[in-house]
């Protein structure tokens, strides 16, 4: 009877010790979904952690790490935790592995740290199988209903057919450059395609319009005689430049009168001389002309323009006057 009681207590003690020892153990192991892997594909590594509930730890690997020189970690799957009873839990994690080099690789153990303890998985072996690629068959053996035949550009080198758009852009830029050079060389304005060209008035109409705008500014009436005369002479100089091809903007009065020997301007040189001389007095001698003199200069400018306007402009002006006269007579 006493022996039976002793054996019973001994068995109970051993079971308690075994249960306590089992409750404190942490296990960490791993296995591959497949021991072979086709080069370039991925395979999962299943990791299993069994530990006490509430115990925390971390696996010492990160996405982008390499297990070996030729096998790398390309991702994780979400962890799965389950309660296995007796205050224990099981955590399942999956690593995604990939390799682009064929061969047989021994994967080193992965470490799991929980508190002051470090655990590691068993070693695994992964065989990466090369891919057999028949490039001619895969690239050129297309099943089509009809033979497409050769293309007109098949004889061109690859560096031309692959980068044709670069050469096209260069040609466009070269054409634009040649166009700009030609326009500048010929002294013509640069016109952009699809952009409407502003209408340019003939020299006579432009000068008459400028004189009309000057009259509306009432400069000499407000004591700005110098600016008034400067603008009149600038209008006439610009007109002479466009009408007769004389670079009059930078010339002196004497130089303009000397070179203006065009037969269409001979009869108007006296008006121009009087205007330019009066303007020189006002601008350089600080002369203050009277009101009549200011108006006289304006009239002389219009007379000069009328005497030197092209024949076409003269005919148009006469036609306009005749039309106006006819309309008045009808009324």
Give an overview in words.
It is a single chain. The protein has 331 residues and is of the alpha+beta class. Helix content is 46%, strand content 20%. It has helices at residues 2-24, 135-140, 158-161, 164-185, 203-217, 225-244, 253-259, 269-284, 291-308, 311-330, and strands at 27-32, 36-38, 42-52, 58-59, 72-85, 88-98, 103-107, 111-114, 117-120, 124-129. The strands form 3 sheets. The protein has a 4-stranded antiparallel beta sheet, with no helix packed on it. Strands 2-10-7 form a 3-stranded mixed beta sheet, with no helix packed on it. Strands 4-8-9 form a 3-stranded antiparallel beta sheet, with no helix packed on it. A hairpin with a 2-residue loop joins β8 (111-114) and β9. Residues 9-23 and 135-147 have low confidence and may be disordered.
What is the arithmetic mean of pLDDT?
78
Distance between the termini: 155 Å
Give the overall shape, derived from the CA principal axes.
elongated
Secondary structure tally, helices: 10
State the share of residues found in helices, binned by percent.
40-55%
What order do the SSEs take from the amino end to the carboxyl end, as H and E?
A: HEEEEEEEEEEHHHHHHHHH
Largest sheet: 4 strands, antiparallel
Low-confidence stretches: 9-23, 135-147
Q: Helix/strand/pairing class, anyone?
A: alpha+beta
Number of strands: 10
Beta-strand content: 15-25%
Strand order, largest beta sheet: 1-3-6-5
What Rg is obtained from the alpha carbons, in whole angstroms? 51 Å
């Amino acid at each position: 009877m006493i022996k039976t009681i002793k054996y019973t207590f001994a068995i109970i003690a051993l079971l308690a010790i075994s249960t306590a020892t089992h409750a404190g153990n942490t296990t960490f192991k791993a296995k591959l979904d497949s021991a072979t892997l086709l080069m370039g594909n991925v395979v999962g590594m299943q990791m299993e952690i069994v530990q006490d509930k509430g115990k925390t730890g971390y696996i010492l690997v990160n996405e982008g790490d390499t297990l070996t020189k030729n096998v790398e970690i390309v991702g994780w799957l979400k962890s799965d935790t389950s309660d296995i009873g007796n205050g224990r839990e099981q955590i399942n994690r999956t690593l995604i592995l990939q390799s682009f080099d064929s061969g047989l690789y021994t994967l080193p153990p992965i470490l799991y740290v929980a508190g002051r303890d470090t655990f590691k998985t068993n070693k695994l072996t992964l065989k990466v199988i090369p891919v057999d690629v028949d490039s001619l068959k895969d690239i050129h053996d297309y099943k089509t209903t009809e033979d497409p035949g050769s293309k007109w550009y098949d004889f061109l080198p690859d560096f031309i057919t692959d980068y044709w758009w670069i050469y096209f852009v260069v040609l466009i830029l070269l054409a634009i450059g040649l166009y700009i050079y030609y326009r500048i060389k010929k002294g013509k304005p640069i016109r952009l395609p699809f952009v409407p060209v502003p209408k340019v008035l003939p020299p006579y109409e432009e000068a008459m319009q400028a004189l009309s705008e000057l009259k509306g500014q009432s400069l000499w009436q407000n004591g700005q005689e110098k600016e008034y005369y400067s603008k009149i002479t600038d209008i006439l100089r610009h007109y002479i430049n466009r009408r007769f091809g004389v670079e009059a903007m930078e010339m002196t009065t004497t130089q303009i009168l000397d070179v203006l020997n065009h037969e269409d301007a001979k009869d108007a040189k006296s008006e121009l001389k009087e205007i330019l001389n009066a303007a020189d007095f006002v601008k350089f001698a600080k002369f203050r002309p009277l009101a009549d003199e200011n108006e006289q200069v304006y009239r002389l400018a219009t007379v000069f323009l009328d005497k030197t306007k092209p024949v076409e402009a003269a005919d148009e002006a006469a036609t306009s006057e005749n039309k106006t006269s006819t309309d008045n007579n009808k009324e």
